[in-house]
Specification:
This protein is α/β, with parallel strands linked by helices. The protein has two domains: about 230 residues, Adenylosuccinate Synthetase, Chain A, domain 1 (3-Layer(aba) Sandwich); about 160 residues, Adenylosuccinate Synthetase, subunit A, domain 3 (Adenylosuccinate Synthetase, Chain A, domain 3, Alpha-Beta Complex). The chain has 14 helices and 20 strands. The longest helix is centred in the C-terminal third of the chain and has 14 residues. The two termini are about 20 Å apart. It binds inosinic acid. The site of inosinic acid has 20 residues, from helix 6.
Length: about 375
């Protein structure tokens, strides 16, 4: 069994792109299973910045990359991204396969999204919601429909032989015991079912979506890794209990370069929230954490972690469905002493003692081990624990 699911554990932007890029070294295939051009992964290789919206970052390592059936794809956006990747000398047609069941985003979906949704929930305006609305109303257009209509678009002309039954392709690869990564976009709290509805995206970004969105069955999965930023961020509207609307929030935004890869919007920043992380463990069945951006917390004298919420005198350990409760609950914190600099990180033992305490606390409170630790922007700045 060689299928690993990677999910975001908070509100997205946990640094999945860098992690998938790192883990992709040892795998055969990387699959995106939901969402579309709303996502944005920034990967820095040899100081050169590449932003991906649709194609998994595994493409840089010439891995097979699949856009799964659970996705909604804007063909024009995909073509633009492909052009950027071709500039790097990668023959994309050898590596990219698109599910014949994935749905298409048309211009009208993007127009509708921009007009109706941006101000209400703060959508990225990429047409995601309107395209999924058509899918579930059973009036959507799938990739197979474009093929059968013999569309003469530039996209179909270029990719007709790459639009295939990707579930069947994955089954074949899985039978050969080759490693597969199922890469989620967004994060647990943006999931249409489990997130902070209606301030969510329109797909299942949690591990359940990895199965329906790729056409792989549950018994094939051997690991589910949750990516957790060492603090919390959120783009767009909606409640955020540990948000810091002060200088510390500004510090995290500046140090962490917390601006959206797709929209450029400043991200809201706050302390790490264990109510959210425990929820992510439960919903996704996480077998381990990958903690990112620990270095951003360096130089803070004190660092807080939310243990539980207090609402009307009651302690809440489970993430509530009610936005009213979320908006009016008070996070209860444990305070940790900070550290100056992570220094040259070689192993867990080489980390400053205070940062070790912080990480061990996260593991203990969530009853889930940290498997990897990522810091800094470069693809090599990751250690295995
Ligand atoms: P949509 O997915 O464009 O419909 O946007 C719905 C909500 O999800 C908005 O609050 C967006 O800011 C948020 N969102 C969508 N994609 C991402 C992402 O990749 N990272 C962080 N937030 C996202």
């Amino acid at each position: 069994m060689a299928v690993t699911i990677i999910v975001g554990s908070q509100w997205g932007d946990e640094g999945k792109g860098k992690i998938v890029d790192f883990l992709a070294k040892n795998v055969t295939v990387v699959v995106r299973y939901q969402g579309g051009g709303n996502a944005g992964h920034t990967v820095i290789v040899d100081g050169r910045k590449t932003v991906f919206h649709l194609i998994p970052s595994g493409i840089l390592q010439k891995k097979i990359c699949i856009l799964g059936n659970g996705m909604v794809i804007n063909p024009e956006g995909l073509l633009k991204e492909v052009e950027e990747i071709e500039k790097l000398g990668i023959d994309i047609k050898k590596y990219l396969f698109i599910s014949d069941r994935a749905h298409v985003i048309f211009h009208r979906h993007r127009q509708q999204d921009k007009h109706e949704n941006v101000n209400r929930i703060g959508s990225t305006g990429q047409g995601i919601g309107p395209s999924y609305t058509d899918k579930f109303a059973r009036v959507g257009t799938r990739m197979i429909d474009l093929l059968e209509k013999k569309s003469s678009s530039k996209f179909i002309a270029k990719f007709k032989s790459n639009i295939v039954d990707t579930s069947a392709l994955l089954a074949k690869i899985n039978r050969q015991k080759k490693e597969i990564i199922l890469e989620g976009a967004q994060g647990t709290l943006l999931d249409i079912d489990h997130g902070t509805y209606p301030f969510v995206t329109s797909s299942n970004s949690t591990s359940g979506g990895a199965l329906t969105g790729s056409g792989i069955g549950p018994m094939e999965v051997c690991n589910v890794f949750g990516i957790a930023k060492a603090y919390t961020t959120r783009v767009g509207n909606g409640p955020f209990p540990t948000e810091l609307s002060n200088k510390t929030g500004e510090f995290l935004r500046t140090q962490g370069k917390e601006f959206g890869a797709t929209t450029g919007r400043p991200r809201r920043c706050g302390w790490l929230d264990l109510v959210i992380l425990r929820y992510a463990v439960r919903i996704n069945s996480l077998s381990g954490w990958i903690v990112t951006k620990l270095d951003i917390l360096s130089n803070l004298p004190k660092i807080k972690v939310c243990l539980y919420y207090k609402y009307k005198g009651k302690k809440l350990y489970d993430f509530p469905a009610s936005l009213k409760v979320l908006q009016n609950c008070r996070p209860v914190y444990r305070e940790f002493s900070g550290w100056k600099d992570l220094g040259k990180v070689k192993s867990f033992a080489s980390l400053p003692k205070n940062s070790q305490k912080y990480l061990r606390f996260l593991e203990k409170e969530t009853e889930t081990p940290i498997k990897y630790l990522s810091f800094g922007q470069d693809r090599n700045q990751i250690i295995r624990l």
